[in-house]
Task: structure prediction
Amino acid sequence: MLIDLHNHTKPCSQCAYLSADELVREAMRYRLDAICVTDHFLAWGGHEARTLARERYGFTVFAGVEATTTLGDVLVFGLDENFAKGSDGPELLRYVDERGGATVLAHPFRQGGGRPLWEWLQKQDLAPGAGTDDRRMTLPGLGRKPVLHPDLIHLHAVETFNGEVNASELAQAEQLAATMGLPSVGGSDAHVLRQVGRTATEFAHRVESEAELAREIRAGRVRPVRLR
Ligand SMILES: [Zn+2]
Ligand SMILES: [Zn+2]
Result:
Protein backbone atom coordinates (compact mmCIF):
# COMPACT_ATOMS: atom_id res chain seq x y z
CA MET A 1 0.00 0.00 0.00
CA LEU A 2 1.49 3.32 -1.11
CA ILE A 3 0.97 6.36 1.12
CA ASP A 4 2.53 9.79 0.71
CA LEU A 5 3.09 10.70 4.36
CA HIS A 6 3.79 14.42 4.10
CA ASN A 7 1.58 17.11 2.53
CA HIS A 8 0.36 20.59 3.38
CA THR A 9 -2.87 22.46 2.66
CA LYS A 10 -3.96 26.07 2.78
CA PRO A 11 -5.13 27.86 4.78
CA CYS A 12 -4.13 25.62 7.72
CA SER A 13 -0.45 25.74 6.69
CA GLN A 14 0.23 29.41 5.98
CA CYS A 15 3.14 28.49 3.67
CA ALA A 16 0.99 26.21 1.46
CA TYR A 17 -0.53 27.25 -1.88
CA LEU A 18 -2.68 24.13 -2.29
CA SER A 19 -6.24 23.66 -1.10
CA ALA A 20 -7.23 20.25 0.19
CA ASP A 21 -9.37 19.81 -2.93
CA GLU A 22 -6.45 20.60 -5.27
CA LEU A 23 -4.09 18.34 -3.31
CA VAL A 24 -6.43 15.36 -3.35
CA ARG A 25 -7.31 15.70 -7.04
CA GLU A 26 -3.61 15.90 -7.96
CA ALA A 27 -2.62 13.02 -5.65
CA MET A 28 -5.23 10.78 -7.31
CA ARG A 29 -3.33 11.10 -10.62
CA TYR A 30 -0.43 9.08 -9.17
CA ARG A 31 -0.38 5.50 -8.01
CA LEU A 32 -1.06 6.45 -4.40
CA ASP A 33 -3.53 4.51 -2.26
CA ALA A 34 -3.71 7.32 0.28
CA ILE A 35 -2.00 10.49 1.45
CA CYS A 36 -1.42 12.13 4.81
CA VAL A 37 -2.09 15.80 5.41
CA THR A 38 0.44 17.05 7.94
CA ASP A 39 -0.12 20.75 8.38
CA HIS A 40 2.19 22.77 10.60
CA PHE A 41 1.29 22.61 14.32
CA LEU A 42 -2.45 22.16 13.76
CA ALA A 43 -4.60 19.08 13.27
CA TRP A 44 -7.70 20.65 11.69
CA GLY A 45 -6.22 20.83 8.17
CA GLY A 46 -5.92 17.05 8.15
CA HIS A 47 -9.43 16.59 9.49
CA GLU A 48 -10.96 18.80 6.81
CA ALA A 49 -8.95 17.16 4.00
CA ARG A 50 -9.92 13.71 5.26
CA THR A 51 -13.63 14.53 5.20
CA LEU A 52 -13.46 16.29 1.84
CA ALA A 53 -11.52 13.43 0.20
CA ARG A 54 -13.90 10.80 1.47
CA GLU A 55 -17.12 12.63 0.64
CA ARG A 56 -16.13 14.14 -2.68
CA TYR A 57 -13.72 11.58 -4.13
CA GLY A 58 -13.89 8.37 -2.08
CA PHE A 59 -10.13 8.78 -1.57
CA THR A 60 -8.29 8.12 1.70
CA VAL A 61 -6.58 10.93 3.58
CA PHE A 62 -5.04 10.32 6.98
CA ALA A 63 -4.67 13.27 9.34
CA GLY A 64 -1.31 14.02 10.95
CA VAL A 65 0.62 17.07 12.12
CA GLU A 66 4.12 18.43 11.45
CA ALA A 67 5.45 19.71 14.76
CA THR A 68 8.33 22.18 14.94
CA THR A 69 10.71 21.11 17.68
CA THR A 70 14.19 21.69 19.02
CA LEU A 71 15.26 18.64 16.97
CA GLY A 72 13.73 20.06 13.79
CA ASP A 73 10.43 19.15 12.18
CA VAL A 74 8.72 15.98 13.38
CA LEU A 75 5.73 14.33 11.71
CA VAL A 76 3.26 12.98 14.24
CA PHE A 77 0.72 10.27 13.42
CA GLY A 78 -1.95 8.57 15.48
CA LEU A 79 -2.48 11.41 17.95
CA ASP A 80 -5.26 13.87 17.34
CA GLU A 81 -3.59 16.95 18.79
CA ASN A 82 -2.08 20.33 18.01
CA PHE A 83 1.55 21.01 18.91
CA ALA A 84 2.93 24.36 19.98
CA LYS A 85 5.70 25.83 17.85
CA GLY A 86 9.15 25.22 19.30
CA SER A 87 8.25 22.15 21.36
CA ASP A 88 11.07 20.38 23.17
CA GLY A 89 12.05 17.60 20.72
CA PRO A 90 12.92 14.69 23.05
CA GLU A 91 9.90 15.57 25.24
CA LEU A 92 7.54 15.49 22.24
CA LEU A 93 8.97 12.16 21.01
CA ARG A 94 8.38 10.63 24.42
CA TYR A 95 4.88 12.11 24.73
CA VAL A 96 3.78 10.66 21.37
CA ASP A 97 5.46 7.29 21.93
CA GLU A 98 3.82 6.82 25.32
CA ARG A 99 0.40 7.40 23.75
CA GLY A 100 0.90 4.88 20.96
CA GLY A 101 1.53 7.44 18.20
CA ALA A 102 4.37 7.44 15.70
CA THR A 103 7.03 10.09 15.09
CA VAL A 104 9.10 10.68 11.97
CA LEU A 105 12.06 13.05 11.79
CA ALA A 106 11.24 15.13 8.69
CA HIS A 107 13.86 16.22 6.10
CA PRO A 108 16.66 16.05 8.73
CA PHE A 109 19.44 17.60 6.65
CA ARG A 110 17.54 19.64 4.10
CA GLN A 111 18.89 23.15 3.56
CA GLY A 112 15.52 24.58 4.59
CA GLY A 113 14.47 22.97 7.86
CA GLY A 114 17.47 20.86 8.85
CA ARG A 115 19.37 23.36 10.98
CA PRO A 116 17.89 22.55 14.42
CA LEU A 117 18.92 18.89 14.13
CA TRP A 118 22.34 19.88 12.85
CA GLU A 119 22.87 22.17 15.83
CA TRP A 120 21.65 19.48 18.20
CA LEU A 121 24.07 16.94 16.66
CA GLN A 122 26.92 19.39 17.10
CA LYS A 123 25.98 19.96 20.72
CA GLN A 124 26.08 16.19 21.25
CA ASP A 125 29.45 16.05 19.48
CA LEU A 126 27.92 13.82 16.81
CA ALA A 127 28.93 16.00 13.89
CA PRO A 128 32.69 16.08 14.38
CA GLY A 129 34.92 18.56 12.62
CA ALA A 130 32.16 20.39 10.82
CA GLY A 131 31.41 24.07 10.94
CA THR A 132 27.81 25.23 10.88
CA ASP A 133 28.03 25.95 7.15
CA ASP A 134 29.51 22.58 6.28
CA ARG A 135 26.58 20.32 5.51
CA ARG A 136 28.68 17.18 5.12
CA MET A 137 28.96 15.09 8.21
CA THR A 138 30.07 11.70 9.38
CA LEU A 139 28.08 10.05 12.08
CA PRO A 140 29.95 7.65 14.31
CA GLY A 141 28.61 4.14 14.51
CA LEU A 142 27.86 3.58 10.86
CA GLY A 143 28.82 0.07 9.85
CA ARG A 144 28.93 -0.99 13.46
CA LYS A 145 26.06 -1.66 15.82
CA PRO A 146 23.40 1.05 15.33
CA VAL A 147 23.45 3.69 18.05
CA LEU A 148 20.32 5.41 19.26
CA HIS A 149 21.01 8.54 21.28
CA PRO A 150 19.02 8.64 24.58
CA ASP A 151 17.19 11.77 23.38
CA LEU A 152 15.99 9.86 20.32
CA ILE A 153 14.93 6.54 21.81
CA HIS A 154 11.27 7.45 21.32
CA LEU A 155 11.71 8.28 17.63
CA HIS A 156 10.26 5.74 15.19
CA ALA A 157 11.48 6.63 11.69
CA VAL A 158 13.48 9.03 9.54
CA GLU A 159 12.10 10.71 6.43
CA THR A 160 14.85 10.10 3.89
CA PHE A 161 12.91 10.71 0.66
CA ASN A 162 11.45 14.22 0.76
CA GLY A 163 10.21 16.00 -2.34
CA GLU A 164 12.78 18.77 -1.98
CA VAL A 165 16.02 17.12 -0.81
CA ASN A 166 19.14 16.97 -2.97
CA ALA A 167 21.39 13.90 -3.31
CA SER A 168 23.77 14.87 -0.51
CA GLU A 169 20.95 15.71 1.92
CA LEU A 170 19.34 12.37 1.06
CA ALA A 171 22.60 10.50 1.66
CA GLN A 172 23.00 12.14 5.06
CA ALA A 173 19.44 11.27 6.06
CA GLU A 174 20.00 7.65 4.98
CA GLN A 175 23.19 7.58 6.99
CA LEU A 176 21.36 8.92 10.04
CA ALA A 177 18.64 6.25 9.75
CA ALA A 178 21.25 3.51 9.34
CA THR A 179 23.31 4.81 12.24
CA MET A 180 20.28 4.76 14.50
CA GLY A 181 18.87 1.50 13.17
CA LEU A 182 15.55 3.17 12.33
CA PRO A 183 13.29 2.59 9.32
CA SER A 184 13.16 5.16 6.52
CA VAL A 185 10.02 6.64 5.00
CA GLY A 186 9.15 8.99 2.15
CA GLY A 187 6.88 12.01 1.85
CA SER A 188 6.59 14.69 -0.82
CA ASP A 189 6.17 17.62 1.61
CA ALA A 190 3.97 19.21 -1.05
CA HIS A 191 3.13 22.88 -0.59
CA VAL A 192 2.36 23.56 -4.29
CA LEU A 193 0.86 21.49 -7.09
CA ARG A 194 4.11 20.49 -8.81
CA GLN A 195 5.40 18.89 -5.58
CA VAL A 196 2.50 16.45 -5.21
CA GLY A 197 3.17 12.72 -5.67
CA ARG A 198 6.96 12.79 -5.81
CA THR A 199 7.70 10.23 -3.12
CA ALA A 200 5.75 7.94 -0.87
CA THR A 201 6.04 5.18 1.68
CA GLU A 202 5.23 1.57 0.93
CA PHE A 203 3.39 -0.15 3.77
CA ALA A 204 3.70 -3.93 3.89
CA HIS A 205 0.20 -4.20 5.37
CA ARG A 206 -3.00 -2.40 4.53
CA VAL A 207 -3.88 0.39 6.97
CA GLU A 208 -7.32 1.91 7.36
CA SER A 209 -6.95 4.40 10.17
CA GLU A 210 -4.44 6.78 11.69
CA ALA A 211 -3.97 4.31 14.57
CA GLU A 212 -3.06 1.51 12.14
CA LEU A 213 -0.76 3.83 10.21
CA ALA A 214 1.07 4.70 13.44
CA ARG A 215 1.26 1.05 14.44
CA GLU A 216 2.90 0.04 11.12
CA ILE A 217 5.44 2.87 11.26
CA ARG A 218 6.28 1.92 14.84
CA ALA A 219 6.74 -1.69 13.73
CA GLY A 220 9.02 -0.57 10.90
CA ARG A 221 6.98 -2.32 8.21
CA VAL A 222 7.61 0.58 5.82
CA ARG A 223 10.07 1.65 3.14
CA PRO A 224 10.49 4.83 1.07
CA VAL A 225 9.60 4.84 -2.63
CA ARG A 226 10.39 7.47 -5.24
CA LEU A 227 7.48 7.95 -7.63
CA ARG A 228 8.85 10.53 -10.06
ZN1 LIG B 1 9.14 20.66 7.55
ZN1 LIG C 1 6.27 19.79 5.75
User: Anything to note?
Assistant: The chain is about 30% helix and 20% strand. Residues 1 and 206 are 6 Å apart (CA to CA). Strands lie at 2-4, 34-40, 60-69, 72-77, 102-105, 157-162, 184-187, 199-203, 222-226. The two ends are 17 Å apart (CA to CA).
